[in-house]
């Protein structure tokens, strides 16, 4: 059976309007089309500053697109069966975007948005608990993700605010990948990791793809790209300097 399409981007354009610079318009990319099927790992490939992270943030609706559409196949209830419904994140309500992010769309950035006072274990177990899993079971799963990512057990009861960059990144990966989202957006998830942890994360992403997850990633590291990419997606940046409004 052919894998289902999970992401359909059409004519997506993004420009920033710099209000502190008299409304200067800074076009980043225009008319991007992108289709991603389940099981694919599409790697956005372009030089630094070309707009790769901006594109990923538009796919997560962190940045509002200037024009175009970002359709995501949203599965509201993973146990309910069915193929899900298309939701266009460029026109969706905040509630719809929240729902898509809860069950369908995961995003790993290089940085963990730390919530003060919540322990690492609770942070990683929370997505499962919020979906109705018993606390003990969710914590057991969280422990096994943390152990596989070599987060020392002495750190599990500590909030990750004081963790090193690489530790925070691994907590971030555990918290997102534990949810088994059908779609994953990954912005340099291995950037701060040593080789051993990098290989673990490569294996985790590969396992997700093998289960049918659709992945869109940015990986500067050639080794990671070669290991994971089923296809490169060249992003053509708009070369012009910022234009006057
Ligand atoms: N919120 C913002 N406001 C204004 N300009 C922005 C904003 N976010 C990004 N940019 C600009 O958009 C351009 C593309 O940035 P982006 O972070 O998407 O590049 P990138 O391809 O991910 O680069 P890198 O490989 O270095 O991470 C840059 O010139 C950046 O300054
Ligand atoms: Mg970037």
Automatic annotation (TrEMBL):
SUPFAM superfamilies: P-loop containing nucleoside triphosphate hydrolases
One Pfam entry name: ABC_tran
Domain ABC transporter: 7-245
Keyword set, alphabetical order: ATP-binding, Cell membrane, Membrane, Nucleotide-binding, Transferase
MF annotations from Gene Ontology: alpha-D-ribose 1-methylphosphonate 5-triphosphate synthase activity; ATP binding; ATP hydrolysis activity
EC category: transferase
Gene3D superfamilies on file: P-loop containing nucleotide triphosphate hydrolases
InterPro entries noted in UniProt: AAA+_ATPase, ABC_transporter-like_ATP-bd, ABC_transporter-like_CS, CP_lyase_PhnL, P-loop_NTPase
Presence of the UniProt keyword Membrane in the record: yes
Keyword Repeat: no
EC number(s) stated in the UniProt entry for this protein: 2.7.8.37
Entry's family note: Belongs to the ABC transporter superfamily.
NCBIfam families per record: CP_lyasePhnL
Protein name: Alpha-D-ribose 1-methylphosphonate 5-triphosphate synthase subunit PhnL
């Amino acid at each position: 059976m052919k894998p289902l399409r999970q992401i359909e981007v059409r004519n997506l354009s993004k420009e920033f309007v710099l209000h502190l610079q008299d409304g200067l318009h800074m076009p980043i990319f225009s008319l991007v089309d992108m289709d991603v099927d389940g099981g694919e790992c599409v790697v956005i490939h372009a030089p630094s500053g070309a707009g790769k992270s901006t594109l990923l943030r538009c796919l997560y609706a962190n940045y509002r697109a200037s024009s175009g559409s970002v359709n995501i196949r949203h599965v509201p209830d993973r146990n309910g069966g069915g193929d899900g419904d298309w939701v266009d994140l460029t026109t969706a309500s905040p509630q719809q975007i929240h729902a898509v992010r809860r069950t369908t769309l995961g995003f790993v950035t290089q940085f963990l948005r730390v919530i003060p006072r919540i322990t690492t274990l609770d942070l990683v177990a929370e997505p499962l608990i919020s979906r109705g899993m018993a606390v003990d079971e969710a914590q057991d799963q969280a422990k096994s993700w943390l152990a596989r990512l070599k987060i020392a057990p002495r750190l599990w009861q500590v909030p990750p605010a004081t963790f090193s960059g690489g530790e925070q990144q691994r907590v971030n990966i555990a918290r997102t990948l534990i949810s088994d989202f059908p779609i994953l957006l990954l912005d340099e998830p291995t950037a701060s990791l040593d080789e051993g942890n990098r290989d673990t994360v490569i294996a985790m992403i590969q396992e997700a793809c093998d289960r049918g997850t659709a992945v869109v990633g940015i990986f500067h590291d050639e080794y990671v790209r070669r290991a994971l990419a089923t296809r490169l997606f060249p992003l053509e940046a708009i070369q012009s300097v910022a234009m006057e409004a």
